[in-house]
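Chapter summary example.
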Amino acid sequence: MPKARVADHAEAGRGRVVKLIGNGGVKPSYWEIAPGAANAAGQNLTLALAAQYGRDNISFVAVNPGPVGTERWGGLVDAMARDMEITREEADMLAPRSIPLRRIAECEEVASLVAYLASDLAHFINGTMIEIDGGQQKPLMDRLRDR
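The structure predicted for these 147 residues follows.
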Protein backbone atom coordinates (compact mmCIF):
# COMPACT_ATOMS: atom_id res chain seq x y z
CA MET A 1 0.00 0.00 0.00
CA PRO A 2 1.51 3.40 -0.95
CA LYS A 3 2.26 5.95 1.74
CA ALA A 4 -0.22 8.79 2.09
CA ARG A 5 1.25 12.23 1.52
CA VAL A 6 0.23 15.42 3.25
CA ALA A 7 -0.83 16.77 -0.14
CA ASP A 8 -3.24 13.85 -0.57
CA HIS A 9 -5.14 15.04 2.50
CA ALA A 10 -5.22 18.75 1.73
CA GLU A 11 -8.55 20.04 0.50
CA ALA A 12 -8.25 20.74 -3.24
CA GLY A 13 -4.46 21.05 -2.90
CA ARG A 14 -4.74 24.19 -0.78
CA GLY A 15 -4.20 23.56 2.87
CA ARG A 16 -2.78 25.07 6.01
CA VAL A 17 -1.13 23.43 8.97
CA VAL A 18 -0.81 25.53 12.11
CA LYS A 19 1.28 23.94 14.84
CA LEU A 20 1.17 25.18 18.43
CA ILE A 21 4.61 24.57 19.82
CA GLY A 22 5.88 26.96 22.50
CA ASN A 23 8.51 29.68 22.71
CA GLY A 24 11.14 27.54 24.46
CA GLY A 25 12.76 26.63 21.14
CA VAL A 26 13.59 30.25 20.33
CA LYS A 27 13.87 31.60 23.87
CA PRO A 28 15.86 28.98 25.77
CA SER A 29 16.33 28.84 29.51
CA TYR A 30 18.54 26.59 31.62
CA TRP A 31 15.53 25.38 33.63
CA GLU A 32 13.59 24.36 30.49
CA ILE A 33 16.22 22.40 28.58
CA ALA A 34 14.13 19.35 27.58
CA PRO A 35 10.97 21.30 26.66
CA GLY A 36 13.08 23.85 24.78
CA ALA A 37 14.78 21.10 22.76
CA ALA A 38 11.40 19.54 21.94
CA ASN A 39 10.06 22.96 20.89
CA ALA A 40 13.10 23.57 18.67
CA ALA A 41 12.59 20.19 16.98
CA GLY A 42 8.93 20.99 16.31
CA GLN A 43 9.85 24.36 14.89
CA ASN A 44 12.50 22.81 12.64
CA LEU A 45 10.00 20.23 11.40
CA THR A 46 7.48 22.97 10.60
CA LEU A 47 10.03 24.89 8.51
CA ALA A 48 11.13 21.74 6.67
CA LEU A 49 7.54 20.76 5.87
CA ALA A 50 6.79 24.28 4.66
CA ALA A 51 9.62 24.02 2.15
CA GLN A 52 8.67 20.49 1.10
CA TYR A 53 4.92 20.98 0.66
CA GLY A 54 4.78 24.62 -0.45
CA ARG A 55 4.87 23.44 -4.08
CA ASP A 56 1.67 21.50 -3.31
CA ASN A 57 0.05 24.76 -2.15
CA ILE A 58 0.10 23.72 1.51
CA SER A 59 1.42 26.23 4.02
CA PHE A 60 2.90 25.47 7.43
CA VAL A 61 3.36 27.87 10.31
CA ALA A 62 4.39 27.46 13.94
CA VAL A 63 2.73 29.44 16.73
CA ASN A 64 5.00 29.72 19.74
CA PRO A 65 3.06 30.91 22.77
CA GLY A 66 4.71 31.88 25.98
CA PRO A 67 2.82 31.50 29.27
CA VAL A 68 -0.94 31.17 28.75
CA GLY A 69 -3.67 31.16 31.42
CA THR A 70 -4.82 27.58 30.89
CA GLU A 71 -5.62 24.79 33.34
CA ARG A 72 -2.06 23.57 32.74
CA TRP A 73 -0.56 26.86 33.96
CA GLY A 74 -1.15 26.11 37.64
CA GLY A 75 0.82 22.87 37.40
CA LEU A 76 3.68 24.65 35.68
CA VAL A 77 3.78 27.26 38.44
CA ASP A 78 3.88 24.48 41.05
CA ALA A 79 6.77 22.82 39.19
CA MET A 80 8.69 26.10 38.95
CA ALA A 81 8.26 26.70 42.66
CA ARG A 82 9.49 23.20 43.46
CA ASP A 83 12.39 23.18 41.01
CA MET A 84 13.56 26.71 41.81
CA GLU A 85 13.01 26.28 45.56
CA ILE A 86 10.85 29.37 45.85
CA THR A 87 7.31 29.91 47.08
CA ARG A 88 4.36 29.33 44.77
CA GLU A 89 3.56 33.04 44.98
CA GLU A 90 7.09 33.94 43.83
CA ALA A 91 6.88 31.39 41.01
CA ASP A 92 3.50 32.75 39.89
CA MET A 93 5.03 36.21 39.48
CA LEU A 94 8.13 35.12 37.53
CA ALA A 95 6.47 34.91 34.12
CA PRO A 96 4.52 38.19 34.27
CA ARG A 97 7.67 39.99 35.42
CA SER A 98 9.56 38.64 32.39
CA ILE A 99 6.94 40.04 29.99
CA PRO A 100 6.90 43.77 29.19
CA LEU A 101 3.08 43.68 29.18
CA ARG A 102 3.28 42.37 32.79
CA ARG A 103 0.78 39.53 32.32
CA ILE A 104 0.49 36.13 30.71
CA ALA A 105 -1.60 35.53 27.60
CA GLU A 106 -5.29 34.77 27.63
CA CYS A 107 -6.44 31.63 25.77
CA GLU A 108 -8.56 33.76 23.43
CA GLU A 109 -5.51 35.73 22.29
CA VAL A 110 -3.73 32.58 21.14
CA ALA A 111 -6.92 31.10 19.68
CA SER A 112 -7.57 34.25 17.63
CA LEU A 113 -4.10 34.09 16.11
CA VAL A 114 -4.50 30.40 15.26
CA ALA A 115 -7.93 31.01 13.71
CA TYR A 116 -6.50 33.75 11.52
CA LEU A 117 -3.54 31.62 10.44
CA ALA A 118 -5.86 28.73 9.58
CA SER A 119 -8.06 30.98 7.43
CA ASP A 120 -7.78 31.65 3.71
CA LEU A 121 -6.61 35.18 4.57
CA ALA A 122 -3.28 33.82 5.79
CA HIS A 123 -2.46 31.21 3.16
CA PHE A 124 0.64 33.08 1.98
CA ILE A 125 2.12 32.96 5.49
CA ASN A 126 4.34 29.91 5.15
CA GLY A 127 7.48 28.60 6.76
CA THR A 128 7.59 30.97 9.66
CA MET A 129 7.26 30.99 13.42
CA ILE A 130 5.17 33.51 15.30
CA GLU A 131 5.82 34.14 18.98
CA ILE A 132 2.79 35.23 20.97
CA ASP A 133 4.40 35.85 24.32
CA GLY A 134 4.11 39.57 24.96
CA GLY A 135 7.82 40.00 24.20
CA GLN A 136 8.85 37.66 27.02
CA GLN A 137 12.47 37.95 28.12
CA LYS A 138 13.20 34.62 29.80
CA PRO A 139 16.60 35.70 31.15
CA LEU A 140 14.68 37.99 33.51
CA MET A 141 13.14 34.89 35.07
CA ASP A 142 16.62 33.42 35.50
CA ARG A 143 17.93 36.57 37.19
CA LEU A 144 14.94 36.73 39.51
CA ARG A 145 15.54 33.11 40.50
CA ASP A 146 19.29 33.62 40.97
CA ARG A 147 18.90 36.69 43.21
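To summarize the output: The chain has six helices and three strands.
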